[in-house]
Design brief:
The chain is α+β, with helices and mostly antiparallel strands. The relative contact order is 0.12. Helix 1 (about 25-40) crosses helix 2. It has one domain. The chain has helices spanning about 25-40, 45-80, and strands spanning about 5-10, 15-20. A hairpin with a 2-residue loop joins strand 1 and strand 2 (about 15-20). It has two helices and two strands; from the N terminus they run E-E-H-H. Strands 1-2 form a two-stranded antiparallel sheet.
Length: about 80
């Protein structure tokens, strides 16, 4: 079982503490995804707007990956 610990994340202009059992490499990947999503948002945005836009960007990215996977699975299923 993994031990939980406090981890600091920066999203936009705010810093947040989360308590998580995730490993450092998992946290690093998550931070990179958040940084990439925030980097495309206008720096002058309010924190609340930045959080919402980041959430929407991450949701869109997840949807795009899910759609690609669905198409791949349909193609594989069609070949069998």
């Amino acid at each position: 079982m993994r031990t939980s610990r406090d981890v600091f994340l920066t999203i936009g202009k705010g810093s947040y503490t989360i308590h998580t059992p995730l490993e450092n490499d998992e946290i690093d990947r998550i931070k990179a995804l958040i940084d990439e999503a925030c980097g495309e948002i206008v720096k002058g945005a309010k924190q609340e707007d930045m959080l919402m836009l980041t959430c929407l960007k991450l949701a869109y990215s997840l949807d795009a990956v899910n759609e690609k996977l669905r198409k791949i699975l349909e193609r594989i299923d069609g070949e069998n």
